[in-house]
Amino acid sequence: MLKDEHLRLIDCHTHLDQYSDSDIKDVIKRSKIKGVQSIVSAGVNLSSSQKNQSLALEYPNYVWAGVGIHPMEIDSKTDKHQLDGVRKLAGNKETVCISEIGLDYESSSANKSLQKEIFSQQIQIACEVNKPIVFHNRGASTDPIEILNRESNGKIDIVAHYFQGTINYTYMCLNNGFYISLAKTLLRMPELQDLVKTEIPLENIVLETDSYPQPFKKKRSSWTEPWEIEKVATKIADLKGIDVKEVEHITNRNASKIFGLD
Ligand SMILES: [Zn+2]
Question: What percentage of the chain exceeds 70 in pLDDT?
């Protein structure tokens, strides 16, 4: 690869809607300059899902929307009205996945049975519109896999977002035909690097940055942005001892198939 030639990669999971309007313009501009081919931007509640729809309309064939209610956004007020709103957005052509949905067992999150109920209902929405799911799992062990299998019955593609699983969890995902979405955590987690090196086939890998505003980082320039996806692809190529162009080709093919992109 020439030094100034960028890879053309698909960032499968971001939260562009959470940046300020002027920042969104700049983030997308930098993404385009640095070669990012497409960005999927996931909602965390109904209004953020609507905002991602608007962004997908504003940046056609570049930004694609995920819609859904994030487990950390679920509370006792999460109701049918919001799920109906997600269902309505899910059918739009700009929506390429139901995301970000899943389970989060941090102590501050909603009670587990409520989370499971809302997760199940959103999996049913994905099946109704025949679109893939990009799911979140924090501290919930294999619960998301069990619910996904029960509710979707293999009918739709499933992507494990921000993957940092153990070897057993990795095998559960792979044996169920899930895709594994790798982020910059790969650069600093030796256990994950070992899994990528020998256990996770490129045919099951997609890439993401999970970009969102990070004011807790001192410098604006150190906030994660979609253009950094190139670092993840390069690391995978190093670990597997293959050309980074192969990582570009296969992960793009995977993402295009999952999300129905041209
Ligand atoms: Zn996310």
Answer: 98
Q: Please check whether residue 5 lies inside any domain of the structure.
A: no
What confidence score (pLDDT) does residue 31 get? 97
Q: How far is the CA of 42 from the centre of ligand 1 (A)?
A: 7
Distance from residue 134's CA to the centre of ligand 1 (Å) = 9
Contacts with 107 (C-beta within 8 Å, 6 or more apart), sequence order? none
229 in a structural domain? yes
Instruction: Identify residue 113 by its one-letter amino acid code.
Output: S
Cα(18) to centroid(ligand 1), Å: 11
40 — phi, psi (to 5°)?
A: -100, 125
Output the pLDDT for position 5: 82
- In whole angstroms, give the CA distance from residue 103 to residue 74: 10
Q: How remote is the CA of residue 210 from the centroid of ligand 1, in Å?
A: 5
- Centroid of ligand 1 to alpha carbon of 212 (angstroms): 8
Domain with residue 248: its CATH number is 3.20.20.140
Count of domains forming the chain: 1
Low-confidence ranges of the chain (pLDDT < 70): 1-4
CA of 211 to the centre of ligand 1 (A): 8
Residue 262: per-residue pLDDT: 76
Residue 158 located in a structural domain: yes
Q: Could you list the residue range(s) of the whole structural domain that residue 148 is in? A: 10-259
